[in-house]
């Protein structure tokens, strides 16, 4: 990360340029499919190993960590759990090796935290000219699709039975070359500029029936299972980003002089750094605990939410303190902490807002 990624981070952020070359190098290390077993050409590592990787990547480049989190957890884990052998042969190997990246399409203009409120529709139809062949026609718009302009396969959720409520949602594996699939506008974001977030437009998008993931009506179950594990990864990302901000602030405090000594000699700065370090360690413990629960097969939904809630809010506090320690230079785009401050803000929002995490934790208390 120091040698291959850090030199390009600031320029890529300014240009909004996706780190294609950096992804290829990380793929060679197995980072694009860490949770996929060797049978499907992945390294078959555990969740602890996965969060350690994300933490280290995010310490240098949170946007890159976001792209890795989406393809690893939000797409490959559901494919591994619910996919057919044919689907795994077609997509999972290529995802695990980094040949293609995955993208997760759930959010819509009118449905974010309320995942069951999506409006995209999928209808079964006979394919013209192909005897006995069935396909689904997908119609709708997805927004805030991470990796959306660079992915090779999209996990898309649409309603197949409007009368069944949350049990009428179905998941599909969609390729960007399918007829009726189009990438729309690119979001102009506050931060994480080199991780593309785009609009996906489905206009009679024709998806073969064999590309349905799981059974009809299993879509919400698949989506929520992906988000549970994904929250552990995003929490690890937050810890890594916070660690990077602490490292930068500590280094600067030891160099910056004021009133005849380095600012690290002032108790006000020391206490800020001490609080930052303590909060990071607390968040890290929550993340590792949730990861261990997941690896043991234990119920971990509430633990993942606790880790995501605390780590995502912690990183915003830590990044703000890092900017404060830097003073006016911390407000300049010439520093890493300015980028980190912007990159941190979205972490309390994506993969389930802080408010949603509190709802899950309260529900676990029987409330």
Could you walk me through the main structural features you see in this protein, from its secondary elements to its overall organization?
There is one protein chain. The model has no long low-confidence stretch (mean pLDDT 95). The chain is of the alpha+beta class and 367 residues long. It has ten helices and ten strands. It has helices spanning 6-15, 20-28, 47-60, 62-82, 85-96, 219-255, 267-296, 301-326, 336-345, 354-364; strands at residues 102-105, 121-126, 134-146, 153-159, 169-174, 181-186, 197-208, 212-213, 257-258, 261-262. The strands form three sheets. It has a four-stranded mixed sheet. Strands 2-3-7-6 form a four-stranded antiparallel sheet, with helices on one face. The chain has three domains: 6-100, Acyl-CoA dehydrogenase/oxidase, N-terminal domain (Butyryl-Coa Dehydrogenase, subunit A, domain 1); 103-216, Butyryl-CoA Dehydrogenase, subunit A, domain 2 (Beta Barrel), CATH 2.40.110.10; 221-364, Butyryl-CoA Dehydrogenase, subunit A, domain 3 (Up-down Bundle), CATH 1.20.140.10.
